[in-house]
Amino acid sequence: MPSIEVPAHYGAVILCNVVAPTLVSSIALAGRVMSARKEFKVEYPNLYGVPGVHKQADDFNKVQRGHQNMLEGAMFYIPMSLVAGLEHPLAVAFGGLCYCVGCFAYQSGYTKSAADRNKGLGPAKYIGVLTSLVVAIKMSVPML
């Protein structure tokens, strides 16, 4: 049976690219959504506030959208980073931290205005995505 040799420091990949995004998403970002549900009175089963039904639907939707943005990207990012981390674990782990910080900052900016969404540290998440993408491409080309 074929085996995969896990490099030194691969634990950093797991911590920064699996554990950290899960904690950021389920505790930090989802916690903000739960607080916003109470503040803006958007009850379950509504995923988003409905204009005309919920008085501050747009304000709630901005918080929810910031969280959904991370969930939508994580399904591609996490598996890609696990593979890329086999080649360059420390670089990919650093990218994972950038991804988490960027997602947290993105949600913070998204709740303010369209002009603030990509200000501050929000774009840092793309450092993580691009790090894993470049390493994954670098790994795959010689296998062709």
TrEMBL record:
<dbReference type="GO" id="GO:0016020">
    <property type="term" value="C:membrane"/>
</dbReference>
<dbReference type="GO" id="GO:0004602">
    <property type="term" value="F:glutathione peroxidase activity"/>
</dbReference>
<keyword id="KW-0472">Membrane</keyword>
<dbReference type="GO" id="GO:0005783">
    <property type="term" value="C:endoplasmic reticulum"/>
</dbReference>
<dbReference type="GO" id="GO:0005635">
    <property type="term" value="C:nuclear envelope"/>
</dbReference>
<dbReference type="InterPro" id="IPR023352">
    <property type="entry name" value="MAPEG-like_dom_sf"/>
</dbReference>
<dbReference type="GO" id="GO:0006691">
    <property type="term" value="P:leukotriene metabolic process"/>
</dbReference>
<feature type="transmembrane region" description="Helical">
    <location>
        <begin position="12"/>
        <end position="31"/>
    </location>
</feature>
<keyword id="KW-0812">Transmembrane</keyword>
<dbReference type="GO" id="GO:0004364">
    <property type="term" value="F:glutathione transferase activity"/>
</dbReference>
<dbReference type="InterPro" id="IPR050997">
    <property type="entry name" value="MAPEG"/>
</dbReference>
<dbReference type="InterPro" id="IPR001129">
    <property type="entry name" value="Membr-assoc_MAPEG"/>
</dbReference>
<dbReference type="Pfam" id="PF01124">
    <property type="entry name" value="MAPEG"/>
</dbReference>
<keyword id="KW-1133">Transmembrane helix</keyword>
<protein>
    <recommendedName>
        <fullName>Glutathione transferase</fullName>
    </recommendedName>
</protein>
